[in-house]
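Morning!

This is the sequence you dropped in the shared folder:
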Amino acid sequence: MANSTRTLRLGGPMSLIGRVAVVTGAARGLGRAIALRLAQDGASVAAWDLNFDGAEATAATIREAGGKSVACCGDSSKADQIAQALAQTHQALGPVTILVNNAALSPFVKFEDLTEPAWDELMTVNMKGPFLCCKAIIPDMLAAGWGRIINISSSAAQAGSGLHAHYAASKGGVIGLTKGLAIEYAARGITVNNVPPGFVDTEGLRESPVDIDVYAPMTPMKRPGRPENIAAAVAYLASDEADYVTGHTLSVNGGRYLN
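The structure's back. Tokens below.
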């Protein structure tokens, strides 16, 4: 599991110095690991989350290591709160050229028990949220002539997942959004890719009905992944080394789903 107190050393192998990144859902788990890795590679990072204390802990870890970071509290599925967080980010760090759409809901529900309001709530966060964040931040990227959008999807959209029909559907939509935006902005300096995690040891997984010890031996690698595995994939896609990669689904799942 991601350790928010681990030592952070800035200056990784893929330089993002001079870039400003927004990571949604950065208070813990994958979002925190991604924020820390982008900072390690030199980016200034805005940690966005409804959980301000968690987002501030992420930002503080970066600042204590000598990096630049700001925590912004807000709902990434509400346009007015996105605008407020973006204004705060602009003031503290400058225009944004890296966006990681990570914030999501992931409840386990039997389909026959799934209600229309629950479906709508999840789609608002998981699908509308990335749409609104892209709408708000792409103008910064167009002005810079350079941008990286990395959407966190899910192996549930690739291979299916029991009790997760609405979640899998929403993440399938994220993959589709990725491809559509990739084509639209390919000639304008913006790449758009997605990373679908599979069976990664986070607080969310441990809070779910999944028994990690029982499920792990059934996977090809016989173990869960680490948040840092996802963060490394995101860091690559955010880098200049990935400037000819767009519309791609970079699966990080220990062999759960083979592209």
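Headline: The beta strands are 20-24, 44-49, 69-73, 98-101, 147-152, 190-195.

More detail when I'm at my desk.
O.
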